[in-house]
Design brief:
Elements (H helix, E strand, L loop, with lengths): L1 H17 L6 E8 L2 H14 L3 E8 L4 H7 L5 E6 H11 L3 E6 L1 E2 L3 E3 L14 E5 L2 H13 L4 E2 L12 E3 L5 E5 L4 H4 L5 E4 L1 H6 L9 E2 L8 E6 L6 H10 L2 H10 L5 E2 L2
Parallel strand pairs: 1-2, 1-3, 7-10, 7-11
Antiparallel strand pairs: 3-13, 4-13, 5-14, 6-11, 6-12, 8-9
Length: 261
């Protein structure tokens, strides 16, 4: 009897050793702090139930997530819109492509000095992001607000030099995007990306003007080109673009962050 028990135990041990361990797929994703990361964490919790472990790295510098992705320190990132990605690829030669849209995080005009656009005085000071694509985005919003006019057809390539009309003689400076909320203590108004606005405690509903759902500046998921058909990454994106994440985003951010699905 003892011999049978020993043999049975040995057989069980052999089978256990031979059985493959459960393997969790891992997705390393880069983003910027604030709502981007919060939504990704929620999607990561859903993904964990389907065998995908999501490791999120938060950055404060817009240029780093693409460098990290290109160097294989990340599998995917979600922090940028297509014009910014196109600019990075053109300037740095990254072999990075977008595989899906994610959310619209409206840039807005904020101020600690005035309550409405009509209160902006002649010679007022303002700031925009210093990266080319977000700078152009901010200038387009200034144009929508009736503060300036850009050269016809300049579109997403607009710079301060492309301001054709500046009737209020605005003094516009370029600052790092993360510093724009702080600039409100010194300048009359600034164009601030929503993630940095929320991180600084600004209320989007207090913005003098916000982008709407008609904007083309939606965020994208970006990967190295060789991984554009990677099944695990596509599965995670599918989980992110789910009704559950949509409902969470709309409720958590009270409609200030818009989904594209």
């Amino acid at each position: 009897m003892v011999r049978k028990l020993v043999l049975a135990a040995a057989a069980f041990a052999a089978l256990t050793a031979a059985a493959p361990a459960f393997s969790t797929e891992v997705v390393r994703i880069g983003t910027t702090a604030g709502p981007y990361a919060e939504i990704l964490r929620y999607a990561g919790d859903l993904a964990a139930k389907q065998g995908i472990e999501v490791k999120i790295t938060e950055f404060t510098d817009y240029t780093v997530p693409n460098a990290a992705l290109a160097q294989d320190d990340l599998d995917i990132n979600n922090f940028q819109h297509q014009p910014y990605l196109d600019n990075q690829v053109a300037q740095r030669g990254y072999d990075i492509v977008s595989i899906a849209k994610s959310i619209i995080v409206p840039i807005g005009i904020y101020s600690n000095k005035v309550k409405t656009l009509t209160d902006i005085k002649d010679g007022a000071s303002a700031a925009i992001p210093n990266d080319p694509s977000n700078g152009a985005r901010a200038l387009q919003l200034f144009e929508k607000a009736g503060l300036i006019k850009l050269k016809p057809g300049i579109g997403i390539k607009a710079t301060i030099a492309d301001i054709a009309e500046n009737p209020k003689h605005l003094k516009i400076v370029e600052l790092d995007a993360a510093q724009l909320p702080r600039s409100l203590n010194d300048l009359d108004f600034s164009a601030v990306n929503l993630n940095y606005a929320l991180s600084a405690g600004l209320d989007p509903k207090s913005a003098l003007l916000l982008e709407g759902a008609d904007t083309n500046w939606n965020l994208v998921f970006a990967v190295r080109a060789k991984n554009k058909d990677n099944a695990t990454l596509k599965k995670f994106v599918e989980i992110y673009r789910s009704p559950e994440v949509k409902a969470f985003t709309e409720k958590r951010f009270n409609g200030t962050i818009l989904t594209t699905w």
